[in-house]
């Protein structure tokens, strides 16, 4: 089998993890790096001894026949134009989160993908974290019984720890929930096993060097009756935390502590799940190899990737509804969101 060729647009910290992950899979190779700053692309080429083209514009890479997959790692406000261009060029696409900063740009990408039929994967990389994979399996096996509440938090003082200053820009990065909290919203949807129906959110503006409120608290009512809660904060002085709570009639999970007498008869207290946790803001800690391997499997075996663009659009809708609710001071239904935005 010929190797699948990969082109990466945007050469920041996340792009490096994709370079490393694709380099670990013999079914593919990185054949092009695209960056407005040529030196950024050349740095990764030289560091990882890549035999690849370097471009300051994506057009040549998109025309190349030996490029089958495009990874979009640009600032968030640039995602839509590169995803649409990649789809129109017949390339499969990995889209870093968030998909876009507006509902209109999400729809533009969906329309382009629908016309061409290429496969997509959205970079909610924690789907391949061992703890989240374990939680997914426990839910599928019924360990919690009827799940009536799900909590997931994204807490990260990102503006003190990142060298990428564009994260502070409302225009380029979005809001707190779009910049980082969408990871938590995605996991909450995944574990609720349902789509959101109504969202109510509040935000707090503190003194910080970012151009948007750094804290938002979100409550969600899902179609299946489950309720969800998620807090994103960039303001709290604390280490990174990705808190998870699953509450069911037969069992409960708090992060990596599980109480499930249905599985462990006679259990009297929480027990710890010994596995790798989503407890670091360092992108090198995240399981990009699992994400990349899944996408390659889906391309080669002609299967639908998860989460793809259509699934991630539901996560984006919750994020947009949360921001609209926080700004307007009222609850927002998902159906109303689609008619307003």
Explain what you see.
With 341 residues, the chain is of the alpha/beta class. It has 2 domains: 4-125 and 287-307, NAD(P)-binding Rossmann-like Domain (Rossmann fold), CATH 3.40.50; 126-281 and 316-336, Dihydrodipicolinate Reductase, domain 2 (2-Layer Sandwich), CATH 3.30.360.10. It has 12 helices and 16 strands. It has helices at 13-23, 38-47, 59-63, 79-88, 103-116, 130-140, 158-161, 170-173, 176-192, 288-301, 309-328, 334-340, and strands at 4-9, 28-34, 53-55, 69-72, 92-95, 120-122, 147-152, 154-155, 196-204, 215-222, 227-233, 244-248, 252-254, 257-259, 271-272, 332-333. Strands 7, 8, 9, 10, 11, 12, 13, 14, 15 and 16 form a 10-stranded mixed β-sheet that branches. Strands 3-2-1-4-5-6 form a 6-stranded parallel β-sheet, with helices on both faces. Helix 5 (103-116) links the parallel strand 5 (92-95) and strand 6. Helix 9 (176-192) crosses helix 11. The relative contact order is 0.16.
């Amino acid at each position: 089998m010929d190797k699948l060729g990969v082109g990466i647009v945007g050469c920041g910290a996340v792009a490096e993890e994709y370079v490393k992950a694709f380099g670990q899979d013999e079914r593919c190779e990185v054949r092009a790096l695209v960056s407005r700053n040529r030196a950024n692309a050349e740095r990764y080429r030289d560091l990882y001894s890549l035999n690849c083209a370097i471009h300051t514009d994506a057009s040549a890479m998109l025309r190349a026949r030996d490029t089958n997959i495009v990874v979009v790692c640009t600032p968030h406000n640039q995602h839509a134009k590169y995803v649409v261009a990649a789809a129109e060029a017949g390339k499969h696409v990995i889209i870093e989160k968030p998909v876009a900063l507006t509902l209109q740009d999400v729809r533009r990408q969906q329309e382009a993908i629908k016309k061409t039929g290429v496969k997509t994967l959205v970079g909610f990389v924690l789907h391949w974290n061992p703890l989240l994979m374990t939680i997914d399996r426990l839910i599928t096996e019924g360990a919690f019984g009827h799940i009536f509440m799900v909590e997931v938090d994204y807490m990260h003082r990102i503006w003190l720890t990142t060298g990428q200053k564009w994260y502070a820009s409302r225009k380029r990065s979005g809001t707190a929930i779009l910049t980082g909290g969408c990871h938590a919203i995605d996991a909450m949807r995944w574990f609720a096993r349902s789509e959101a129906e109504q969202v109510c959110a509040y935000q707090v503006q503190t003194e910080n060097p970012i151009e948007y409120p750094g804290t938002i608290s979100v409550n969600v009512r899902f179609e299946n009756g489950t309720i969800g809660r998620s807090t994103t904060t960039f303001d709290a002085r604390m280490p990174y935390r990705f808190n998870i709570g699953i509450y069911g009639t037969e069992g409960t999970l708090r992060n990596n502590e599980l109480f499930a007498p249905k599985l462990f008869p006679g259990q009297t207290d929480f027990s710890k799940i010994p596995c790798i946790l989503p407890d670091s803001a360092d992108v090198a800690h995240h399981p990009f190899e699992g994400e990349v391997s899944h996408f390659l499997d889906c391309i080669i075996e002609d299967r639908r990737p998860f989460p793809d663009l259509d699934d991630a659009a539901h996560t984006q809708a919750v994020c947009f509804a949360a921001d609209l609710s926080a700004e307007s001071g009222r609850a927002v239904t998902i159906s109303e969101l689609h008619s307003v935005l």
